[in-house]
Amino acid sequence: MDRMLTDPARRSVRAVGRIALFAWAGFWAWFLLAHVASEPPAPQPWIGLALVGALSLAAWFRPRLGALGLTAAGVWAAWFFGNTFAVTAITLPAALIAIACWLGAPRSDHASRVAGSGAAR
Predict the structure, then answer these.
(1) DSSP character for 7?
(2) What is the largest CA-CA distance in the chain?
(3) Quick one: which of 121, 119, 61, 59 has its CA closest to 93?
(4) Which three-class secondary structure state does DSSP give residue 39?
(5) What is the per-residue pLDDT across 10-21, written as a single tens digit (0 to 9) for each?
(6) Could you give the angle at which helices 8-38 and 45-61 cross, rounded to 10 degrees?
(7) Which of 6, 18, 25, 91 has the fewest CB atoms within 10 Å, i.e. the most exposed one?
(8) Could you tell me if 118 and 83 are in contact, meaning their C-beta atoms sit under 8 angstroms apart?
(9) How far apart are CA 7 and CA 10, in angstroms?
(10) What's the CA gap between 99 and 68, in Å, rounded?
């Protein structure tokens, strides 16, 4: 049986991470659509929507992969936008969601066997 189902702390962290992920993705989707509506010659906003959607789906269905993707997106944003308060405001939510996704991810079968009693199954 999946180890996540028996670990309430891991389940709680995963639920909080998913709620934050939903809010983060919703904000960026709204922001990109509002940008398109307010500035008609917007440069390819659909790329941003696809990126937010891909990161969100990866973090939802494959939490560890999504955590790596969110971390990479945060590092890229920090590099691209320079050293300002805006960088912190943009990258901190993605970093915190990545930590929650990583910690809340279910254990793999291999990790469960290694962490288990060592008895042959």
Answers:
(1) -
(2) 64
(3) 59
(4) coil
(5) 788 888 888 888
(6) 170
(7) 6
(8) no
(9) 6
(10) 9
Distance, CA of 92 to CA of 22 (rounded, Å): 15
| Six-digit token string for 56 | 């969100």
Alpha-carbon distance 99 to 119, whole Å?
32
Which DSSP string do the residues of 63-108 spell out, in sequence order?
HHHHHHHHHHHHHHHHHHH-SSHHHHHHHHHHHHHHHHHHHHSPPP
Structure tokens at 85: 């308060």
Q: How many CA atoms lie within 13 A of 70 on its CB side?
A: 31
